[in-house]
Design a protein that fits this description.
By secondary structure, the protein is of the alpha+beta class. It has seven helices and six strands; from the N terminus they run ββααααααββββα. The structure holds zinc ion (ZN).
Length: about 260
């Protein structure tokens, strides 16, 4: 199950079943976004999120699950509140003059080693596939499936942070990462192909966040743990929302 679209002090989410297929999950997620006080506005430009309709079976089920598990959410609120508290970090100033450090050279060598290894594997795969058309067809299908999932799960602009980066080759460019990523070098993405000189890989040696892909500015550093008074106020709001959902849910059940 997944939960939570927490943003700007507004917590919102639905529970959904992990076993459902991609299309069902997308429906549930879109439904959640449509109900979200923040995301709905951000994604309403394409006109597809027009709010929940009672006819959507999945939405109704998601809503019921939300209502059923809401007490758990309230119980774990202090932890949950920290899920989206991202403080975006900087390293150096990309636009200022920069001397490559020994660590930069070491990281660049590491990236190039990995690239050589992957290139070697790819060569091996190509040779295997040339000798085995069935294997080739199977791998092709797997790749297409993976691309399809990637395409369907395209991250919306409001969940993307733009970064200005200085690369090992000396060029300065822009890249994007999921908004939950505090540094553009996390999760094995410490290098990229330079769009200027095509050096590939070229290690990211300096970076700074420049704003969300939907034009919102970089948020200030995440707040420290919320105070007890803030939590209690938020709890009261959520309890009111849950009460509201419960009455809507039972009125839908009666239809
Ligand atoms: Zn370059």
């Amino acid at each position: 199950m997944s939960l939570l679209d927490y943003n700007n002090g507004v917590m919102h989410g639905v529970w959904m079943e992990a076993e459902q297929d991609v299309a069902d999950s997308r429906t549930a997620v879109n439904r959640m976004l449509a109900r979200s006080p923040t995301a709905a506005r951000a994604s309403s430009g394409d006109g597809t999120h027009t709010g929940p309709t009672a006819t959507d079976r999945h939405a109704t089920r998601g809503l019921r699950l939300y209502v059923r598990y809401a007490p758990w959410v309230l119980l774990h609120l202090p932890n949950v509140l920290h899920v989206r508290d991202v403080t975006y970090e900087s390293h150096g100033v990309p636009l200022k003059e920069y001397q490559l450090t020994r660590a930069d050279h070491r990281r660049q060598e590491g990236s190039e080693d990995i690239r050589r290894h992957v290139d070697g594997l790819a060569e091996q795969w190509r040779a295997e596939e040339a000798a085995d058309p069935v294997l080739r067809a199977g791998r092709q299908a797997a790749v297409e499936q993976a691309l399809k999932i990637l395409f369907e799960a395209r991250t919306p602009d409001h969940d993307l942070m733009r970064w200005r980066v200085r690369l090992y080759c000396g060029h300065i460019t822009e890249t994007q990462r999921h908004a939950e990523t505090a540094r553009p070098t996390m999760h094995g993405s410490s290098s990229m192909k330079c769009p200027e000189c095509s050096k590939d890989p070229s290690t990211i040696v300096a970076y700074e966040p420049i704003g969300f892909a939907d034009q919102r500015p970089v948020p200030p550093p995440a707040l420290k743990r919320p105070t007890r008074a803030q939590l209690e106020r938020r709890l009261a709001e959520l309890e009111a929302e849950v009460g509201d959902l419960r009455s809507k849910d039972s009125s839908q059940e009666n239809r």
